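Suppose you are handed a protein chain with no further information: no name, no annotation, nothing but its sequence. What can you learn? This example shows the usual starting point.
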Amino acid sequence: MGRVKLEIKRIENTTNRQVTFSKRRNGLIKKAYELSILCDIDIALIMFSPSGRLNHFSGRRRIEDVFTRFINLPDQERDNAVNFPEPHYDRSPGDINCEIEELQQEVNRLHQQLQMTEAQIRIYEPDPSKMTSMEDLESTEKNLVDTLTRVMQRKVDNNHDTS
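A reasonable first move is to predict its three-dimensional structure. Written in structure tokens, the prediction is:
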């Protein structure tokens, strides 16, 4: 006996939705991991569970590094890189309103993520006029020295890998 083909639509029962998310999340992460190894790619996944809990995965690189790479793409390349599924025309107005609300929440979450990422980037590009104390300057210097050390170590590691 084979599996029953599920109709792809929102699961109305909250418990069933959470259980399905938990099971499928692990499968999605496994597939992302396999894809990253097989194709030698950088990959990052961000998911918010039905309860709003953050789940994320990245392959060989830190998730922040993958996002920074994405953010640094030219706008044209970034716009072409994001593919959205085709719209479904058989939805009821209630489904569409629910989806609009979910998309608005997603936009808000992504906006917050962008602000956090921009704040992290500002650590590496500090504004000297906003540094008002010796402590600020020393903290900035420490961050820059730590970053430089990591870059130099990565350079050494890459030179060893290609030798």
